[in-house]
Amino acid sequence: MRQFALNYARPAEQLEVGAAYTYDSALQLNVTPDGRIAAHDYGLLREAGATTSTAGSKTHFDD
């Protein structure tokens, strides 16, 4: 017997998303490809909404 929800479920759309910044472990900050601190790039903040990373959750249990 097929579950009711499977009659209407559709596969999720695969969106191609790339962050315009990476985490720099030496600085412990997100940086843009040209080396600037991502939090200082207001255009990037407007576009992305935030510059969060998972680094804190890997080092602190209460994040």
Q: What does the secondary structure layout of this molecule look like, with pairings?
A:
Elements: E1 22-24, E2 29-31, H1 42-48, H2 55-59
Antiparallel strand pairs: 1-2
Would you give an account of this structure?
With 63 residues, the protein is of the alpha+beta class. The protein has a domain of 39 residues. Strands 1-2 form a two-stranded antiparallel ribbon. The longest helix has 7 residues.
* Unreliable spans: none
N-to-C CA distance: 43 Å
**Sheet with the most strands, sense and barrel status:** 2 strands, antiparallel
What's the tally of helices? Answer: 2
Helix content: 10-25%
Q: Strand order within the widest sheet?
A: 1-2
Q: In percent terms, what proportion of residues is strand?
A: 5-15%
Overall 3D shape? elongated
Mean pLDDT: 76
Rg, alpha carbons: 18 Å
Give me the secondary-structure category: alpha+beta
- Care to count the β-strands? 2
Topology order in helix (H) and strand (E) letters: EEHH
Short synopsis of the structure:
This protein is α+β, with helices and mostly antiparallel strands. 19% of the residues lie in helices and 10% in strands.
Descriptive keywords:
2 helices; two-stranded antiparallel ribbon; elongated; single chain; 63 residues; alpha+beta
